[in-house]
Design brief:
mainly alpha; elongated
């Protein structure tokens, strides 16, 4: 799996990320938890079929997903008037929320 662009599961992870962005941008918060869960399942499938050489980019993808989950949680938590001005994470705020899916399902 040297070229992630050739792997259909990796493409699925990226497609789910794009779908998540579209849902967040359009305010479709009810669909977001399902998309996050689907993306996590695809990443686990990808990890299960990866080789030791794939570890570095797989870890980078996991890290990017964690950042994405944090951003979605911030946007979802912001009042509608503030949604367009969500600040990027600061260096001191690196802890991930306990569960983005749980948090979003309470919305």
């Amino acid at each position: 799996m040297r070229d992630a662009r050739m792997n259909p599961v990796a493409e699925g992870v990226m497609a789910a990320t794009q779908k998540l962005v579209e849902q967040a941008m359009s305010g479709d918060w009810q669909a977001v938890p399902k998309t996050i869960e689907a993306r996590r399942a695809l990443l686990e499938q990808l990890a299960a079929s990866s080789s030791p050489q794939d570890r570095e980019w797989l870890n980078a993808l996991r890290s990017a997903m964690a950042e994405s989950d944090q951003a979605v949680a911030r946007i979802a938590a912001a009042p509608p008037a503030e949604t367009a001005a969500v600040a990027p994470p600061s260096d001191t705020a690196t802890a991930a929320p306990p569960s983005t899916l749980e948090w979003l399902s309470r919305r």
